[in-house]
Amino acid sequence: MNFKNKSVWVVGASSGIGRALAINFAKGQAKLVLSSRNIDELEKVKTECLQLTKHCVVIQLDLEKNDNYTILIDEVKDHYGSIDYLILNGGVSQRSLAFDTPISIDRQLMEINYFGNIAITKAALPSMIKQQSGHIVVVSSIAGKFGWPLRSAYSASKHALHGFFESLRAEQNHNNLNITIVVPGRVKTNISQNAILKDGSKHGQLDKGQQDGISAELCSKQIISAILKNKKEVLIGGKEIYMVWIKKFMPYFYYRFAAKSEQNR
């Protein structure tokens, strides 16, 4: 896990998978940039990282306000000269039925999860193309592989990420740009607590799925392993990730299970 002299920008670094990634990259002696909305939590992560690496800076970023990220790209380059790894881990989940969810919530989730992440990518691309190198890592979800009750907008935003980054990978192969799509299942983070309800408020509960999930630390180690192996896509989690294969090879059982899950919620 040697990332010495490599600049690594972790978006969504204030907690959960992003925080674990930041600490593990710090162990690899990376030159780190940490971003999210929560500047106070970022500073705490920065303090942890500076015990492991000499270089770590904080740049506040809001994925929902994504109209001009060029300024942030310039700030990162001012610190380190280049962006070698761009880790797109920021986003928000949902807990509401499609029928009950106003279109404003759908738009908010797409703005954060999809448009925010591709806006950073588009701002960073000119620099990566010029240097003829770069690795973009986008953290999706198994919800990006199939739909699930109470996740309509969240699932749609993650599906959109797959479509965009698979297209981008094909387009930029000749420029030596690598893209890894990470597909986590259940990971014990605060994602369910921060999930948006139909009225825009937070779910505020740790769902059983997250409670029983793998640790953010284990997830981050598997992500870094996938990066080092330059994997195009990686599934990470417990037994729940088998649902991806069930959907593909035994769709009848997937459809029954998804419907039953909604009836018994």
Spatial strand arrangement across the major sheet: 3-2-1-4-5-6-9
Give the class from helix and strand content and strand pairing: alpha/beta
Number of separate domains: 1
Strand content: 5-15%
Rounded radius of gyration (Å): 18 Å
**Secondary-structure arrangement, i.e. CATH architecture:** 3-Layer(aba) Sandwich
User: What name goes with the CATH superfamily?
Assistant: NAD(P)-binding Rossmann-like Domain
Secondary structure layout:
Blueprint: E1 7-11, H1 16-27, E2 31-35, H2 39-49, E3 56-58, H3 70-80, E4 85-88, H4 103-131, E5 134-139, H5 152-172, E6 177-184, E7 187-188, H6 208-211, E8 214-215, H7 216-228, E9 233-236, H8 242-249, H9 251-263
Parallel strand pairs: 1-2, 1-4, 2-3, 4-5, 5-6, 6-9, 7-8
Helix pairs in contact: 1-7, 4-5, 8-9
